[in-house]
Fold this sequence. Notes:
Number of helices: 11
Distance between the termini: 53 Å
Strand order of the largest sheet: 3-15-18-19-20-21-22-23
Helix content: 10-25%
Structural class: alpha+beta
Bound molecules: alpha-L-arabinofuranose
Shape: globular
Amino acid sequence: MKMEQLNRYVRFGMAMFLLAVCLPLGPFNAGAQSNTITVQVDKPRAAVSPHQFGIFFEDINFGADGGIYAELIKNRSFEFPDGLLGWSKLGAQGSMRVLERENRQTNNRHYLQLTGSGITNSGFRGIGLRSGAEYLFSLQARNTGGAPVNLRVELVRPNGASGQPLAQVKLRGVTGDWKTYRATLRATAAEAKAQLNLVVENSGAVDLDLVSLFPKATWKGRADGLRADLVQLLKDLNPGFLRFPGGCIVEGRNLQERYQWKTTIGDPAERKLIINRWNMEFRTRNPARAPDDYFQSFGLGFFEYFQLCEDVGAEPLPILNCGMACQFNTGELVPLDQLDPYIQDALDLIEFANGSAATAWGRKRAELGHPAPFNLKLLGVGNEQWGPDYIPRFEAFAKAIKAKYPNVTLITSAGPTPDGERFNFLWDKLRGLHAELPSVVDEHYYRPPKWFLENANRYDSYPRTGPKVFAGEYAAHVTVPGRPDRPNNWEAALAEAAFLTGLDRNADLVTMASYAPLFAHVDAWQWSPNLIWFDNLRSFGTPSYYVQKLFSGHRGADILPVTINGSARNGQQQLYVSALRTAKAGEVILKLVNTTAAAAPVRVNLAGAGKIAKQARAIVLASDDLKTENTLDAPARLAPVERKVTIEAAEFDYTLPPQSLTVLRVAFR
Length: 669
Ligand code: AHR
């Protein structure tokens, strides 16, 4: 070897040594070398639960009232404790006051007496109007003044802004008996924060109740229906299940304010309104929030929840109060010997969902317009309970339910944290009970992104003989100094994606998973981050939404063993991988997460796949900037992009973009 050549080798060797010593081992160099991902396509390990990824629904952040429930009038029947909340008088003339009906058994006792004047309702942080769209107005009214009365109904821009009403109609000749009046209004322009005016003409006097306004274009055009754009976002998730109605609202701050499903079915006007516990929680988090106007009208009640599940193709998963109020509030307890009515509610709910029209509760369902059963298979006993009081209450529920409905799968609580004393206590007890009273244990983790990365192997070592796991509430929480909310950014969603590959790998054990919370109104939230944000007209999915969508939309039938560089440990070189196989079509579904800031070349070996199709699909969610967020104005700044890729053989090279989640679907024979 010539001297000059030798010098070159020495210089090169030193340069490589320096590079290795100087470069951080962190995110920036991991992608440089190629890693080998080997999938045993012909050796499926276990079956995936058919309802693996789903939706957690709670009326928090205006999720139901002011959100998916499309009613646009707040305090429509004057039943809020402050009967005039949401309403104000137009002009100085006349008077208005809330009165109570006498001698009538009703949950809708109150009505408004209006004399010689007009009133306005500001909706839920305004009323959203779309240009050209139709709105269905109705109210109950009676004329109390003797003289003929006409009522003018107007939709106007906010706060007395001048100009023509955006829609107007006149209800003529209101008579002396209570009657329902209806009209259709067509908006001439878009307005996100419109108001509804009701003006009494001819200086008359009227009593008013149940003032209601719905967009005509609700989901499936149903009367009293749901907001179509929000339901569509849910359907697009391809959810395996829908958990409802929460969350802490199941428990209530005290037992009086717990969620009681029987009060949420039937005539919407008679559904007894209660305060939403989120009205009081975390008041200071969102400076824009107006206080004390967040109630549960139950316009979205249990019948509608079941219907929604059917509409979006999700298994219904109701969660019921187990005789314990929220332990973050009063922690009020029902004595064990007084638990029967609570247990009866659970038994009746199963009959309501599944019973034939010959049964008492099945008949009620049929009368509400759904003769066919809803086919309920999953039921939660308590929400986020903890401590020794929970176990005997669960046992009492479980014994009664199992005796009558042995095929219903019960969900139990592991408390509010994913580890620690409370968590271990409940797991020990529930494992011990499992042989007699099996359940799926609901774990909750609201943790920083780091936790999600570190827990990608969490379930690898869970015993397979005990209860299955429901990852029932999770979200990566990023805190930004000076920001009141925790952002729904790519940093959070990418960490969730890495973690979810661990759920895919353990889908025999973790049979269900759902992000929480689901919805938030940009002007009325108490909690962040959330999966979907909206205002009165628009909505968007966060990066976390798209992560959920990719995992839920690409579920497989069988788990395939997968290794990174020969090891089954997930997260090596900051790569997180899961592999599934579809039932019929013969496709491998790879989910590949690269959390490094560099592109990561990988060599993929689909061992035992036989002949593969050369055209594969790659669906990619990626951003160089971990701070990336979607917004109302840029709803798809970060959204999946699909492209076709050509692969030559069952062993092929592929490059994962920096900070990306890739779903790779390869067909094989
Ligand atoms: O998702 C928000 C809340 O977090 C839920 O209501 C509760 O179950 C948990 O504490």
